[in-house]
Amino acid sequence: MTRTPPTVGQGSRAAAPQPDVLLDQPVDHPPGVVAGPRDVDARTRVDRSDAPPGPVGGDGPAGVGHAPCHHGEILQGIFLDSAGRPCRGLVTLPVPGTGTTATFVRHLESPAGHLTVRPADRDKARRAAALAVAECARRTGEQPCGGRLALHGRVPVGIGMGSSTSDVIATARAVAASFGVRLPPETVARIAVRAEQASDPLMLGTSAALFASREARVLEDFGGPLPSVVVLSCTTGAGRPVDTLALPAPPVRAVPAYEELRAALRQAIVTADVGLLARVSSESARRNQPLLPKPELDVLERVAGRAGAAGVQVAHSGNVAGLLFDPATPDLPDRLRRAAGGLAAHGLRVGRSFGI
Predict the structure, then answer these.
(1) Where are the domains positioned within the chain?
(2) Which ranges of the sequence are coiled-coil (predicted)?
(3) Which one of 89, 184, 187, 286 has the fewest beta carbons within 10 angstroms of its own beta carbon?
């Protein structure tokens, strides 16, 4: 089978890893946007080696893969698929520059499934590596083998930023790069869901999509990215980890309401309407309250109103949250500082602002 070289930013042999950024460290801001106070609890940081991932030994070629993380969801609920069947779905809010870099070295003499992983507790990444090895071996006609996986990144864990999905996708891309192939996004999605039961659509690229997180399929591709927006990040629930898989599903009777939000989001993307995007995000946050209550939501909305934010945004299965601002808002740096102070005054830990 002809092997297709991996695209830049997904996976490559001996490629230099893309830098990653902590939530409380500088990211690319739109002109005139300043950062809010730093205050991310060190307990939310991933305990990973700070050494560059590079080759880690072995007797086969090394592959490197990268995957981003996200800042929770703009919209999450229950929707109709193309067959009219109710299905859980979500639309994530990307975080530029932050993610996981994985390096995988094949051990050609080791049996399939014999994998060493650094850090050793990354069980989902381990499962993803085994699945990706089997898939790549099938595509190339080579024998499945063992290998060594190293993960490098500083995505906060358990607060709804897709840390495990970032690990899993970076791993799949690194394995594919070590075989000299590129796995299609839909294949990576299937590997991710098999490895972690529910996945975020971080493998899909820049176009916003409504993604069935437990079925590895796109319910709707919106045909373009989310409108440009500035996000002031914070954490709710004292940054405590959330067990995503234990959360209840929205009731089926809520489908019509979520379909209205889906249509509104589609319109917001087509027209680049930040205000409409923020209204969808705020309503989705409110509708998620019975499933994962956030006592701080009222505070978020009050501070947003006083600071002139367009709306609020939350991780529907985590504790990261934010205020959404139109980049064209007058006096935006002052408004961001005022909003950061208002959130901190109510005991919320405030991170950086970032733009998409």
Answers:
(1) 11-355
(2) none
(3) 184
Q: Hey, is 194 helix, strand or coil? A: helix
pLDDT-wise least confident of 13-27, 126-140, 260-274: 13-27
- How far is residue 48's CA from residue 45's CA, in Å, rounded to a whole number? 9
Q: Which residues partner with 149 through β-bridges?
A: 104, 117
What is the percent of the chain with per-residue pLDDT over 70, rounded to a whole number?
84
Three-class SS of residue 152? strand
Per-residue tokens: 236: 């709710």
Using CA atoms, how far apart are residues 356 and 277, in angstroms rounded to an integer?
13
What does the block give as tokens for 4? 């297709």
Annotation: CATH topology of 11-355? Ribosomal Protein S5; domain 2 (3.30.230)
Beta-ladder partners of 251: none
Q: From CA 159, how far away is CA 235, in angstroms rounded?
A: 8
In angstroms, the first-to-last Cα distance of the chain is 38
Helix, strand, or coil (residue 13): strand
Q: Decide: 336 and 346 in contact? Cβ < 8 Å.
A: no
- Helix, strand, coil percentages, rounded to 5, for the chain: 30, 25, 45
Contact 230, 355 (CB under 8 A): yes
pLDDT digits (tens, 9 = 90+) for 77-116: 999 999 999 999 999 999 988 999 999 999 999 999 999 9
Phi-psi region of 347 (alpha: psi -120 to 50; beta: other; left: phi over 0): left
Q: Look up the pTM and report it.
A: 0.83
Peptide bond into 119 cis (omega under 30): yes
Q: Tokens for 37?
A: 């106070």
Q: Which residue has the tokens 């990144």?
A: 153
Q: What tokens appear for 63 in the block?
A: 């592959």
CA angle (132 as vertex; 115, 117 as ends), nearest 5: 25
